[in-house]
Amino acid sequence: MASGILTAPSNPRRKAHPWLRQSFNRHTLRGAVTLVVFVILWALVVAFKVPYLRLLPPPRDVAVSLLQSVASAGYWANWWISMVHIAVGFVAAVVVGVPLGLAMGINRTVRRFVFPIFEVLRPVPPIAWIPLAIIFWPTVSLTIYFLVFTGPFFIIVLNVMDGVREVSQNHVRAALSLGAKPRDVFWRIMLPATLPYVMTGMAVGMGVTWNVLIAAEMVTSATESGLGSMTWTAYTNGILPVIVVGMLSIGVAGYLSSALLRLLGERLMPWQRRI
Amino acid sequence: MSVITKRIFGEFQVRGLSHSYGGVPVLEDCTLDVPRGKLTVLVGPSGCGKTTLINILAGYETSTVGQVLLDERPVAGPGPDRLVVFQEMALFPWMTVEENVNFGCRASGMPAGEMRSRVASVLAKVGLADFRSKYPSQLSGGMQRRAELARAMVNDPKVMILDEPFRGLDAMTRSMMQEFYVGLFEEVGRTNLFVTHDLEEAVFLADRLLIMTYRPGKIREVIDVDLPRPRTFQVMATPRYNEIRQHALELLYEEASKAFAAGSQAAFDLVDGFAKAAGR
Questions:
Q1: Which of A171, A178, A192 faces B107 most closely, judged by CB atoms?
Q2: In angstroms, what CA-CA distances link B224 with B32, B204, B206, B210, B214?
Q3: Same domain assignment for residues B179 and B251
Q4: Per-residue pLDDT averaged across B261-271, rounded?
């Protein structure tokens, strides 16, 4: 396969772990080069006091701040809180969205009743829900859960609905000919056939979810913590390196949650693996 | 021996069947028999209503005029007594070969032990025993068709309906599948209805050949194919085979000309057929 710098030497005893070999090959090396160049450029920008970017903290300060954060319990508490926000809102969106999408895909009457509301509410950016959500929900946590929920919810429902309508007629017919009852058709044909659409909806929804969460946490940062409010508080206190640490952390957290979903998809849909 | 028992196979009787889509008649006064334990092949130009006829026999669609009887009982809805093998792959991509094949057994609530031995024996028969835990996307085209045949056979249907099952396979695989299928039929002797627009395939396989007219579709002629069984590809070199094929070709030519006038794909199929016939 890839003949990168760190691929296994011919000596079998020193064969690198497959995960290592996958992670450090020529392609990831190229990415690393870009990262290094980026950090150098950043340092130069700070060193030469480029106009408008004068307040940018140097990479060294950010690195120090990052190390301090990683060593502090408060930083990880913020991680934990943001992850809980995401998990509750996102899981709720899946738990409500998937059955609703299935119902709308299978039953024309349900679709005709519900779809118009969707057409009106879907284009509303989740962030636009913030004022109403703050007024409606008694606690800040509930407000955030709700806002996180609205991000992926519509995307998931519409993806699942499309998925049901894409179920192959031939598969349904084949199942009926083999003596399947409607129950079997639902559980063994409809559900697995729509699963790729569920996963797509979740993956796309996850991207939106982090957008919404960070906005929500920033708005409510006076009373609630999380990576978003950590970043916003750093701004109000004028601690610039922590702002950058916050941004980096949010990026990593978003990447991790998407990776988790991808892993889940591979687990749930072994037939889509290319071998 | 085999778990595929020579149980009482079924027979179809179709009487005066008519069907139309949006006022366009597709089938008109269609009458035919699919006799017990025989391999009946239905040939007709593309667009003559073969697939519509199949859908009605399978119970996916109902016609307003005429009768479809399976063992003297009218057909109502799809059921495990009539198994359909489709022209496009209809294996469930999310199930392994084994899960696909045992789908029918599980749906009918067969005991696990019986199911296992049955599925194992059918998979062995179609040569897929070593591929039981593969997913359909990991199989070649020919293997996929064999898996579909296995899925249909394991259910022990009264009638097997095959709608151009070898379409889309390359020429060599297709010939192999035809020989494999005819051998399978000769061993089990189940009632089969095989639909195709490939005349050579039709004559090679059939006990009885039904020639369909172009739209509205009905049976133009029934030809008894009295070629000896078991059949191998040598049969295609015999004078009798050519005689039957020539006769059927003339009938089909007339029908395909009508289709040509109607601008149908059928004409192209026929030109293809002539080219192949001339090449031999």
A1: A178
A2: 14, 12, 8, 9, 21
A3: yes
A4: 63
Looking at the fold, whether B100 and B229 belong to one and the same domain comes out as: no
Residue linked to tokens 């059927």: B248
Closest of B117, B226, A275 to residue A266, by C-alpha? A275
Highest mean pLDDT among A203-217, B27-41, B242-256: A203-217
Residues 6+ apart with CB under 8 A from B15: B31, B66, B67, B68, B69
- Same domain for B49 and B168? yes
Q: Which residues in chain A touch residue B131, judged by CB atoms under 8 angstroms apart? A: none
Q: What is the count of structural domains for chain B?
A: 2
- Regarding whether B196 and B139 lie in a shared domain, the answer is no
The better pLDDT of the pair A189, B154 is held by: A189
**pLDDT reading at A97 higher than 90:** yes
- Residues B170 and B55 grouped into a single domain: yes
Out of B78, B137, B138, name the one closest to residue A177 (CB). Answer: B78
CB within 8 Å: A171 and B92: yes
Please report, for residues A65, A68, B263, the alpha-carbon distance to residue A71 in angstroms, rounded to integers and kept in the order given.
10, 5, 77
* Number of CB atoms found within 10 A of residue B94's CB: 22
Determine the 3-state secondary structure of A177 from DSSP.
Answer: helix
Round to whole Å and give the CA distance between B256 and B249: 10
Q: Is residue B194 part of a domain?
A: yes
Q: Where residue B178 sits, what CATH number does that domain have?
A: 3.40.50.300
Q: Which residues on neighbouring strands pair with residue B74, listed in sequence order?
A: B69
Same domain as B43, residue B106: no
- Nearest chain A Cα to B136, which residue? A271
Question: Taking residues B135-159, what's their average pLDDT?
Answer: 87
The chain B residue lying nearest A192, using CA atoms, is B94
Please state the domain extents for chain A: 12-56, 67-272
CATH number of A67-272: 1.10.3720.10
Q: Where in the sequence is the domain holding B245, given as residue range(s)?
A: 36-59+160-212+219-279
> Which residue reads 């409500």 in tokens?
A96
Helix axes A191-219, A73-106, angle to 10 degrees: 140
Is the pLDDT reported for residue A10 higher than 70?
no
Q: Do A170 and B86 touch (CB under 8 A)?
A: yes
pLDDT digits (tens, 9 = 90+) for B173-205: 888 888 888 888 888 778 889 998 888 888 888
| pLDDT tens profile A119-143 | 888 889 988 999 999 999 999 999 9
Of A127, A124, A115, the residue nearest A219 (C-alpha): A127
pTM of the model: 0.78
Task: Report yes or no on B73 lying in a domain.
Answer: no
Average per-residue pLDDT in chain B?
83
Cα separation of B68 and B76, whole Å?
A: 9
> Is residue A103's pLDDT more than 60?
yes
